[in-house]
Amino acid sequence: MIIKSAKNLKFACYQNLLKSKTLYMTSQEIRQKFLDYFKSKDHLIVPSAPIVLKDDPTLMFSNSGMTQFKDFFLGYKTPTAPKIADTQKCLRVSGKHNDLDDVGRDTYHHTMFEMLGNWSFGDYFKKEAIAFAWELLTEVYGIPKENLYVTVFEGDSSENLERDQDAYDFWKSHISEDRIINGNKKDNFWEMGESGPCGPCSEIHIDLRTPEEKAKVSGLELVNNDHPQVVEVWNLVFMEFNRKADKSLEKLPAQHVDTGMGFERLCMALQGKSSNYDTDVFTPLIAKVEELSGKKYTGILEDEKDIAIRVVVDHIRAVSFAIADGQLPSNGGAGYVIRRILRRAISYSYRFLGIKEPFLFELVTVLQKQMGKFFPELEKQGKLVTEVIKSEEDSFLKTIENGLIRVEKLIQQTMADQSKVLPSEEVFELYDTYGFPGDLTRIIAEERGLTIDEKGFEAEMEKQKQRSKQDSAQKVYDWVTLEEREENFVGYDQFESETYITRYRKVENKDGEFYQVVLSNSPFYPEGGGQIGDKGILENATESFEVLDTKKENGLIISLINGLPKDAGAVFYAKVHATDRKNSQANHSVTHLLHEALREVLGTHVEQKGSFVGPDYLRFDFSHFNKMTEEELTLVEDKVNQKIKESIALQEFRNIPIQEAFDKGATGLFGEKYGDYVRMIQFGSSKELCGGTHVKNTIEIGHFKIVSESSAAAGIRRIEAISGDKSEEYFKNLEKQIIELSQLLKSKDVVKSIEKLIEENTSLKSEVDALKKEKAKGEIGDWKSAYELKGDKQLLVKKTSLDAGSVKDIVFQLKKEIPTSVTIILSNADDKPMITVGVSDDLATNYQAGNIVKELAKEIQGGGGGNPGFATAGGKNLAGLENAYEKALTI
Questions:
Q1: Cα separation of 838 and 824, whole Å?
Q2: CB within 8 A of 612, min separation 6: which ones?
Q3: Is residue 588 a known part of a binding site?
Q4: pLDDT tens for residues 685-739?
Q5: Where, by residue number, does Zn(2+) bind (predicted)?
Q6: Is 592 marked within a binding site?
Q7: Is 694 within any annotated ligand binding site?
Q8: CA spacing 20 to 30 A to 531: which of 322, 397, 690, 888?
Q9: Which domains does the chain have, with CATH numbers?
Q10: Mode of pairing for the β-strands spanning 716-723 and 608-613
Q11: Rounded to an integer, what distance in angstroms lies between the CA atom of residue 725 and that of residue 734?
C-alpha cells in the first residue's frame, strides 16, 4: 500500500488501531470511537447543546441531533465549520415526537437518548455520507455486513418527488441490491416539523436475531415493522428542501447532510444484547435500583416490576440532564413536562417496586460516573440535581398519601351509592387537581372489587387536551418577502429608527388575526435572556400600528402588529415604548449587580438559575440551599445600592471571542448555548455574557429594593425586587401608609401605638375565650337533654351561634358521653354557615360522619369532610341552614 499524503497516513494508522479491537466495547468506548472516526475525517467535534431550549419558541427541548444546527440549514447563521460531528442529548416527551407512554413497555423507546451525528453544511452530500456510515459500522465497529439492510426514498407522486436514485446507486457499491429497500414518505422523507428543512433519507437497519430465526423469516420482511430485534440504527438525511406553511416545497440554497444514530441501539448491537436495557448504558442504574428496592430485574417485557425498573432508569436520565441544563420541575411549560416524567417514575416505583420513600435521588451519583466524562454538567450541577429530585420525591409521595385518603372517601361514597364504578369526573379530578395517578386509582379500585369509568375518564382527558390545544392553537402563514434588505437590531443604541418591512406573515389565534413583521432596522428588543420583548409603535405617513410583542425565531427579530399596512413597502418609523424599556433595562442591569452581591455575601457557589426582567419588577433565581437571613438580605441590598451610587459606567464588549470574554473574568449562564462570539456586559467588577439591554450608567437605576425572598425549588432561592420608578413608587406608598396610620392612631410614634393595641387585643381575646368556654359549658347540659330516641339510637339536631372551635369541643365530648348517638350541629357564627357531625364510636361503621355532612352540605352550597366519627362542612348559603336542619331530622 502506498501512502500518498500525511492525511492518508494518519487515517491508515487510525484504521489499524481500530482493527485491533476487543470482542466487547463499553458504551464509553463506542461513543469515543464515533467521535474519533469523524475527527479523522476532518469534522469539528462540538459539545452537545443543552437539552432544554431557552430561546426557541417552536420547541421546548432538543428532540433531535440537528436542533442546534437548525439556523445553519435555514441559512440564518454561518456554521462554525463545514463539517461537524457530536453526540447530542435529546428528549422526546412532547409535541410531534413523544415517546413517553412507550417507555418501559418495550426494549428500545426512551425519553432521553443520545443521538450520534455527523453534519455537512454545503460540503459533502449523499455519496460521502453513505460511505462514512458504511465504513464506520462495518470496518470500525465490525458489524457483519450480512446483518445490515438499508432503505431509500421511493418517491411520492402527490408532491412530484422522484425516487432517490442517487442514494440507491451509491449504496450499490457497498451492499447487495437485494438488501436495498424502497421506503415510503412516512419512513424515508424526514421533516423537522410542520415547516422547515426536510429531504429524503436513507435508513440503516440491523438484524440482531439468531441464525435460526433468520433462517425462518428474512430480515427484509421485518424492516420498519416494529420488530424489537430488527431495528433502525442510523438515519442519513439529505436536506434539499424547505417545507413552507402552505405545505409546498422549495429548494434550499445549499444541500446538507444531517445524520442521526441512536447511541443506545448501537450499544445494543455492538454488545450483543437484545434490549437497550441490557447494555452498560443502563445496567449500572438497574443494579442500583435492585439494591435499593430488593427486587431482581429479569428483563421480562410484560412483568410490571421490570417495566417499573425500565421506567425508573430511563426517566432518571431525562430528569437529571434537564435539571443540570437549568430546567427545574414546575407547574407549567417545560418544567411541567419534567415534573410529569419524574412523577411517572415515582408512581411506577411506588406501585410495582413497593418503594414509598425517596430513592431516585440516589441514582444521580451512578449516572455521574457513567456519563460525567462526556457531559461535565452532571458533575458540576450534581448537588443541585440531587436536591431537586429528592424534594420532588418528598412532595409527590405526600401527594400520593393524601390522594389515598381521597380515593378511600370516593370508594366509600361509591359503595354507599351501591355502585361498582368510580365516577369519571371524581377520578379525573384526583388526577388533574391533586396530581394523583389515574393508574393508581384503578389498581386500588380493583383491589376493592370496583372499576373506574374508563370511557368517561378518557373523555375528560380528551376535553382537557382540546382546551389546551384551543388555548395554544395558532395558524402561521408563509412569509411574504418584500425588497431584499439587510436586517439589523439597532436597539442597543436607539429607541427609534427609520426602517422598512423586509417580510411579513399572517398569524391567526384565539385572540384574532395579527401580522408578524421583520424590519430592516429594528429597535425592538426580542424576548430573551429573561427580558421581555419590547412593545411600541410602527407608523408611516398615513398609518400607525401597535407593536404588541417582539420575539426571536430562527435568527429573525419578529414584531407582532395589530394589522397589515396598506403599503407594506413604505418607509416606516419604529418607536419603542421608552418608559417601559428604560425600566426593563434598569431591572436587567440590576440583576447583574445582584448576582455579584449574592456571590460576595453567600459564597461563590451561587449561580443564576433563571430570571424574569420586565418594566415593573425583576425576579432572580439562584442556587443556594438555605433561606436567606434578614441580615444577609440587607447586606445584599446595601451592596447593590452602593454600586448604583458609585455611578459605574457600562463597558460593553459587543462582539468578542468567547474565550477572550472568559479570560476577562466573564460568567455565563450554565445550560446556555453560546456562539464563538459573544457580548459581554461589564459594570466595574461585574462581568457577564448577556444579550439584553442595559443602562449606560448604574446611576440610572435609581434605587434597588428587595420585595421578597422565597424558595423556587429544592436548592433554588428566588428574589423578587424593584428598581427605578417602581422603587420610588414603593417608598411613596409606604410613606403614605405611615401617615395614614399615624392619623388613625393619633400618634407620631406608630410602632409604640401598635404595640399597645396588640397588648389590649391579646387581653380582650383572653376574656372572650373565657366567656365562650363558660357559654359552652352552659350549652352542654341543655344539649344532653335534647337528644331524641330514634329506634334504639339517639339523634341531636341543634342550631347555635357558637364558633367552630367551641362546637367541636362540645361534639367530641357528647359523642363520648352519649352512646349510640349521632350529633348534628348547625352554626351561623359570624354569618357563615357551618355544619358539624359527630358519630359515637359504636355507630361509626354504619353511620359515617363524612357521608352525612357531605349530604347536608349541599343545602348550604358547600363541602367538607373528615373521618367516620367526626366531620365538618362550610358553605356559602346561610339561608340553607334551615333546609339542612329539616333534612338532618330524617337521618
A1: 7
A2: 530, 532, 618, 619
A3: yes
A4: 999 999 999 999 999 999 999 999 999 888 889 999 999 889 888 988 888 888 8
A5: 588, 592, 690, 694
A6: yes
A7: yes
A8: 322
A9: 24-280 (3.30.930.10), 322-471 (no CATH), 475-576 (2.40.30.130), 586-723 (3.30.980.10), 783-890 (3.10.310.40)
A10: unpaired
A11: 14
